[in-house]
Specification:
Chains A, B: Residues 13-73 form the HTH tetR-type domain. 2 copies of one chain form a homodimer. Chain A is mainly α. The first copy, chain A, contains 9 helices and no strands. The first copy, chain A, binds a DNA duplex through helix 1, helix 2 and helix 3.
DNA sequence: TCGTGAGTAGACAGATCGGTTTACTCGGCC
DNA sequence: GGCCGAGTAAACCGATCTGTCTACTCACGA
């Protein structure tokens, strides 16, 4: 019986857990297309049969990788901003950049995993593509909320600017051509905030 | 006799020209790893022998693709800015965003070709990787010159901010999640310019 | 006790990967 | 006439690609 593929249960079997962790590392560090299922299975200490039994296809595994990364990032961002629930709304907007700074230090030496994945998944029908778009849309929506709470005259416009700064900082950080890219983005965000909430 | 690879003459043979044009389109639209040399040769109406006689290896062809893209972008940017040689220096900084806006409309529907390529070329020794780093360094240096001419107190810092805005706008434009991303970047750049040249 | 879900081990399929090779044609140039 | 650069045509190499398959083990739960 072929399984639904692209929908994995909230609790993974031990084998599936190892596969997903291994795939996540390899996909991010070497690229999605460049990493084959044979390599993933071998590195995870698992057979290809297990991989296909659990995930159904490579595309579905890619989507699962992106979904989990998305979830971790959202939890991290909202958690960090939540720690400053008592701060003034403008501070909370800027806190997203502090959260980003810590995140890229820990998890993003090679740039945004979603932007990188998007470069390799041009097909709009690819299951991973929808995860990517969802991630970006969510971020914009979240920043828009924070912007509105901070009294932005045009929350949508400010959110656009903040997303732009987030993405630019992440990408630049990955290329290593500008240091403290996230700090620069935070500075620009503070200025945009001033302008946008006058 | 193995040829030097990665150094092609300034004038290409007709076959090499077709190969490079075809490869450029395929690499950008489908990704580098996903496009094989067989496909490139077939689409270019050329045999694989010709491809290897002219370019030596796929890696060298990738580097040639990136070099030519780099050259086109530099020519476009400096050309557009040059058209406003009589404008005030601050206007010239902002003109780089107008040049970028026209560029992404014409050539960048899928985001920055260099950022996308960097996602697929993690190996620092890859010949294409050096082209990418050179491109970003050049852009930062060019913006730094313009920033200095505009009277920036810290031209290096302002250049970092401008590069960040350029990259963020390009990436966001490619993802299609924010419209007028380049216009937003231009607004932010104008504000940064005000702040940085007080 | 019996069935089931999760797993190993490993062969197999057909296609494609980057890259090499041999044999040949054609046009220009000295 | 003779050489050479540029090209075609097509076979070939070993490796790897995604995906399927059979056969078997093991632990657990009804």
């Amino acid at each position: 019986m072929t399984q639904e593929a692209a929908r994995e249960p909230e609790t993974l079997t031990p084998g599936a857990r190892k596969i997903l962790d291994t795939a996540a590392g390899l996909f991010y560090e070497r690229g999605i297309t460049a990493v084959g299922v044979d390599l993933i299975a071998r590195e995870a200490g698992v057979t290809k049969k297990t991989l296909y039994d659990r995930f159904g296809s490579k595309d579905a595994l890619v989507a699962a990788y992106l979904r989990e990364r998305d979830e971790r990032w959202r939890d991290w961002l909202t958690g960090q901003v939540g720690l400053r629930g008592d701060a003034d709304p403008g501070e909370r907007v800027l806190a997203t950049f502090d959260a980003l700074a810590a995140w890229v230090r820990r998890e993003n030496p090679r740039g945004c995993g979603f932007v990188n994945a998007a470069a390799e998944l041009p097909d709009p029908g690819h299951p991973g593509r929808q995860v990517i778009m969802g991630q970006k849309r969510w971020l914009r929506g979240y920043l828009r909320e924070l912007a509105a709470a901070a009294g932005a005259r045009e929350p949508g416009r400010l959110a656009d600017e903040l997303v732009l700064l987030h993405e630019g900082a992440t990408v630049l950080n990955g290329l290593g051509i500008v240091d403290d890219a996230v700090a620069r983005a935070r500075d620009l965000a503070a200025a945009a905030l001033d302008r946008g909430t006058g």
